Amino acid sequence: MDDPDAERGMAMKDQSIRQYVRLYRKALEKQGFPDTEAKAGHYEERLSSMLSSPRFQEHNVYPSMNVELIYAVIAMCLELRGFGLTDKEIMTFTEVVFARRRKFFDTLIRMIDLLPNSFQIAKKWNISDHAKRVQDHSIIYDDFTVSENVVEYRISKCMYAEMFDTYGIRGLCKIFCNTDTRSYAGLRRHVRFVRHSDLSDGPCCWDEVHRKGSR
Questions:
Q1: E strands, the chain, in order
Q2: How far apart are CA 89 and CA 95, in angstroms?
Q3: Sheet holding 150-158, edge to edge
Q4: Cβ distance 158 to 178 under 8 Å?
Q5: Once rounded to an integer, what is the mean pLDDT over residues 82-103?
Q6: What CA–CA distances, in Å, run from 47 to 43, 103, 164?
Q7: Rounded distance, CA 147 to CA 49, Å?
Q8: Closest CA to 25 of 93, 71, 90
Q9: Dihedral sign, CA of 31, 170, 140, 9?
Q10: Of 84, 71, 174, 62, which is closest to residue 129 (Cα–Cα)?
Q11: At what angle do helices 67-82 and 174-185 cross, to 10 degrees?
Q12: Per-residue pLDDT, 6
């Protein structure tokens, strides 16, 4: 007897793959790459294989992470590395791939920045995210300190970096690390973000989030 849950899962995975292949193909076309159909086909094969691998099953155990998305980006990075692109060029390419998603979040951040309590919102984000990560062990915090005007944390292990490292491209995890920097760059009125280092190329992820005007 067929397993309806398994069939639904396969259908959802196939739909996700088609979505990422479509985004990848459009970015190839926009960036002027030749043979976009063939390149998109190779990406689809790679991503399908990766999502069916034991390695993906091992990683896909963290509810706070969209592991399919992470694997889709890793597969893109590996394909683009094969074209001879530098890490900087690859990161620029992924910005093109997810430009629509970035535009939505940029708009949301600008709206939050207009609010007088934007620091409190950022503070709650961090507290909530910390709780989720601690619960599913996707991120290991050496320190997480919250005061009235500052949130500071140090992370010694992050599964985003570990997944990229598994495929030999740890440095390209900065694609995800930079989402924090980009988000906080939009919160200019009441929030100051300081990143000392991240795990894509440093010994730890060490961030501070300050209420502007406080000491």
A1: 139-146, 150-158, 191-197, 205-211
A2: 10
A3: 139-146, 150-158, 205-211, 191-197
A4: no
A5: 96
A6: 6, 25, 14
A7: 46
A8: 93
A9: positive
A10: 62
A11: 110
A12: 53
Q: DSSP state, 135?
A: H
Q: Is the distance from CB of 24 to CB of 76 less than 8 angstroms?
A: yes
Residue 155 has which token pair?
């992370």
Instruction: Report helix, strand or coil for 172.
Output: helix
Give kind and range of the element (H or E) at residue 92: helix 87-97
Q: How far apart are CA 126 and CA 112, in angstroms?
A: 15
User: Cα–Cα distance between 128 and 198 in angstroms, integer?
Assistant: 20
Cα–Cα distance measured from residue 210 to residue 12, given in angstroms and rounded to the nearest whole number = 41
Whether the Cβ atoms of residue 119 and residue 212 lie closer than 8 Å to each other: yes
Query: What one-letter code names the amino acid at 121?
Result: I
State the CB neighbour count (10 A cutoff) for residue 2: 6
CA-nearest of 43, 41, 93, 99 to 71 is 43
Q: Terminus-to-terminus CA distance in the chain, angstroms?
A: 65
* Mean pLDDT of the 117-125 span: 97
Give the tens place of pLDDT for each residue, 142-187. 999 999 999 999 999 999 999 999 999 999 999 999 999 999 999 9
The model carries a pTM of 0.92
Mean of pLDDT values over 34-55:
97
